[in-house]
Amino acid sequence: MQVANSVTLPLATYQPRHFLLTVDGPVATVTLNRPEKKNPLTFESYRELADFFHACAKDEDVKTIVMAGAGGNFSSGGDVFEIIGPLVEMDTKRLTAFTRMTGELVKAMRAAPQPIIAAVEGICAGAGAIVAMASDIRLAAPGAKVAFLFNKVGLAGCDMGACAILPRIIGQGRASELLYTGRFMSAEEGERWGFFSRIVDTGELLGESYNLARMIGTGPTYANTMTKRMLAMEWAMSVEEAIEAEAVAQALCMTTEDFARAYRAFAAKEKPVFKGD
Fold first, then answer.
1. Could you say which of 38, 89, 213, 233 would form a disulfide bridge with 76 (CB–CB 3.0 to 4.6 Å)?
2. Percentages helix, strand, coil for the chain, rounded to the nearest 5?
């Protein structure tokens, strides 16, 4: 999928049609904004979100991204009437084009160099759960509920990379339970299983997510990008291959000015101010 012409650079100037976007310094906040329906996704929002994350790879000002939902919920997944209804009438060719398009969103999120933080409250289900899963870090409000609902509508749990990514986050057995049953996982259970990094009071969730994003965003940009890339690449490597790949990656990070800047700051007993070079 190519970046849509409507996604302009820098991202601070882009005004999306199907979600809200704010850019504050190094942090971009993407807010799914259909609160009356618990922020479901549509054909158009899938495409625009994928295009947005593709564009992130070309923006040097945005360092981290926060994903959130409006109105007290993250996302209820694909819109029943705007997506599921039309899918019932499609042939195999068009259905495969759709499932590849939805998977493109996850691939774009994983390929974006910026770490992505999901601020999850309320309902986080179906494709919404996938978006949270595809993020790098997840924080939850106490009432957050996550469900991979696909088998509830007669589909397999293997949707948008769930069978590849979810077991790596919470383990094969726990992922199997969620994907076979489609049941909701509470915030407390999600934190205990490692899906959520921590639970944050509802009124503080977005602010805490932003603060974490800003802290990461003011760090060494090239090094953070390398960390995200290696976390993904090493899934398919042996330990020996991973150690060698990390040796090369770290050597590259040692050529950056941020690395030298950190040494000079340490020698002067000062806090380094990273500039991303």
1. 38
2. 55, 15, 35
Per-residue pLDDT tens over the stretch 124-171: 999 999 999 999 999 999 999 999 999 988 889 999 999 999 999 999
Residue reference for tokens 């726990």: 174
Indicate the range of 26-40, 75-89, 171-185 predicted with least confidence.
75-89
Q: Interhelix angle for 43-56 vs 92-111, to 10°?
A: 30
Q: Which pLDDT score is estimated for 2?
A: 39
248 and 164 within one domain: no
Residues 20 and 154 in one domain: yes
What is the C-alpha to C-alpha distance for residues 69 and 139, in angstroms, rounded to an integer?
Answer: 13
- Is pTM beyond 0.85 here? yes
Which backbone phi and psi does 85 adopt, to 5 degrees? -55, -55
Pair (142, 239) in one structural domain: no
Q: What three-state secondary structure class fits 80?
A: helix
The residues facing 145 across adjacent strands are: 123, 186
**Using CA atoms, how far apart are residues 98 and 100, in angstroms rounded to an integer?**
5
**175 CB-side CA count, 13 A:** 20
225 with 212, same domain: the answer is no
Residue 97: how many CB atoms within 10 A of its CB?
10
- The answer to whether residue 92 scores a pLDDT higher than 60 is yes
* 101: its two tokens: 């398009």
Burial of residue 24 (number of CB atoms within 10 Å: 0-12, 13-18, 19+): middle
DSSP 28: E
